[in-house]
């Protein structure tokens, strides 16, 4: 019985640190070497040294995604919920279920399960964010899948991020933490 109900936590993943300053040059090099047409996504996956892909932790997949100027990460939807933490760049956006959300450094953007979405970048310079999805949970519960949309962009209109239940702007979060 203790195999199924152990007396202590028994994670298979081990603690590990991925330093942004070490990873960013490789991510930008991928942006120069791999075109938008060659890759559905440019993501450097954080693979836990104790596990295979797609494990970052026992329950979370994470990776840094890069979108270069005037690129689109094609529209799709998937069963896994997704979280995006915006690290750097200006002019990036995601369109989720018809709502176009501007990306701002420090923001957390949520993509609920099975909502059509795409990502893009207007202006100059790269857009980089941390993607987090609970993909490892589907290893023993194999119901995760992806459906691509018929065109690269999902139809969307701009959203007021101050009113969105799926956007957590850093400026609002910081104000709450400082109060």
Automatic annotation (TrEMBL):
<dbReference type="InterPro" id="IPR013096">
    <property type="entry name" value="Cupin_2"/>
</dbReference>
<protein>
    <submittedName>
        <fullName>Cupin domain-containing protein</fullName>
    </submittedName>
</protein>
<dbReference type="InterPro" id="IPR014710">
    <property type="entry name" value="RmlC-like_jellyroll"/>
</dbReference>
<keyword id="KW-0560">Oxidoreductase</keyword>
<keyword id="KW-0223">Dioxygenase</keyword>
<dbReference type="InterPro" id="IPR011051">
    <property type="entry name" value="RmlC_Cupin_sf"/>
</dbReference>
<dbReference type="Pfam" id="PF07883">
    <property type="entry name" value="Cupin_2"/>
</dbReference>
<dbReference type="GO" id="GO:0051213">
    <property type="term" value="F:dioxygenase activity"/>
</dbReference>
<feature type="domain" description="Cupin type-2">
    <location>
        <begin position="64"/>
        <end position="131"/>
    </location>
</feature>
<dbReference type="InterPro" id="IPR047183">
    <property type="entry name" value="GDO-like"/>
</dbReference>
């Amino acid at each position: 019985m203790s195999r199924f109900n152990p007396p202590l936590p028994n994670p298979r993943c081990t603690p590990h640190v991925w330093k942004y300053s070490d990873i960013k040059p490789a991510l930008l090099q991928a942006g120069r070497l791999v075109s938008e047409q060659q890759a559905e996504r440019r993501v450097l996956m954080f693979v836990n040294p104790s596990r295979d892909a797609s494990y970052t932790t026992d329950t979370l997949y994470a990776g840094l995604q890069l979108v270069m100027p005037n690129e689109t990460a094609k529209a799709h939807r998937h069963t896994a919920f997704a979280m995006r933490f915006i690290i750097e760049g200006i002019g990036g956006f995601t369109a989720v279920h018809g709502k176009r959300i501007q990306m701002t450094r420090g923001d957390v953007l949520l993509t609920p399960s099975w909502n059509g979405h795409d990502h893009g970048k207007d202006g100059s310079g790269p857009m980089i964010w941390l993607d987090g999805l609970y993909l490892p949970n589907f290893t023993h519960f194999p119901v995760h899948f992806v459906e691509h949309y018929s065109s690269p962009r999902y139809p969307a209109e701009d959203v007021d991020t101050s009113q969105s239940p799926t956007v957590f702007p850093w400026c609002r979060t910081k104000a709450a933490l400082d109060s």
